[in-house]
Amino acid sequence: MAPAKLYVVEHLDPELGPWSMLEYLSIAEESNAAGSEFCLSSVSPTLDLPGELQVVPGLRVETDSVESFLADEKERVCLLDPSAMKDLSPEDGGLFDVFLFGGILGDDPPRDRTSELRKKGYEGRRLGPKQMTTDTAVRVTRKVVQDKIPLHQIPYVDFPELQINRHESTEMPFRYVKGEDGQPVMPQGMLELIKKDSEKGFGDLF
Q1: Which residue from 135, 132, 110 is spatially nearest to 24, judged by alpha carbons?
Q2: Does pLDDT of 2 surpass 80?
Q3: Measured distance CA(88)–CA(125) in Å, rounded
Q4: Comparing 59-63, 154-158, 161-165, 188-192, which segment has the lowest mean pLDDT?
Q5: Which one of 11, 29, 171, 195 is most buried, by most CB atoms within 10 A?
Q6: What residues contact residue 147 under an 8 Å CB cut-off, 6+ apart?
Q7: More reliable by pLDDT, 138 or 108
Q8: 3-state secondary structure of 96
Q9: Which SS3 state, helix, strand or coil, does residue 133 take?
Q10: Maximum distance among all alpha carbons in the chain?
């Protein structure tokens, strides 16, 4: 089994929407299955985590920022940064133990949520040119650094069109990992959430 890694998402928002909750559940379960750990950092002390997140295996919650609780391991922390000059590679699994994601990567249009983390001096790596949801970004990172699959060899689905009902479909503005069935890999319950709330626009889901 590949050496364990710590995947950290800085949850910079005072609230936690249903979209993020499903993503975090998926990240925790998949990280745990891979022998690694998922950490939500910078979590507001006033945020009441849903019950599902409180009991999911593999999840660690920190109210401190990564800069604080990983202060002595900065050189082993990799920031996944769309503006980085270098793409993530399987060799990075030997250089870094912690992989840091700047909050909601899957905003549309993208917000540069990693800029504050970049200013803290963490070494950055890129996951390619396409915007990914947070769970996809962690999934791809794990495949590269733990499963040793190069970025360009991972099968993707870009901007999939999801059928909402017989008369309506919506295009998701993200890159996803392609599953064995040829469909985009999404957290359990995400497709139902998207269908349920498609008429509201995605702004309310995050």
Answers
A1: 135
A2: no
A3: 5
A4: 161-165
A5: 11
A6: 2
A7: 138
A8: coil
A9: coil
A10: 55
